[in-house]
Amino acid sequence: MVNRSAPGAALNWRKGSRSGDKNDCVEVAAAGPAVLIRDSRDLAAGTLALDAAQWRTLLRSVRNGDLDGR
Questions:
Q1: In this predicted model, what pLDDT tens digit does every residue of 11-27 receive, in sequence order?
Q2: CA of 42: how far to CAs of 20, 37, 54, in Å?
């Protein structure tokens, strides 16, 4: 689940609970209808913006192991 940020508020970036205090993970934030994704090690690299269908497809692919070994 991605918590929605209030309009005009700073984004509520979240990272996986298994990453602990490390900074080598992806972070997600909701911005209106989009889910934003960024690399916590390289914030200057930018973000990906996915719509709801794309976000669900990505989650399903990760859970199914479809992206392992790529």
A1: 888 887 777 676 678 89
A2: 18, 12, 23
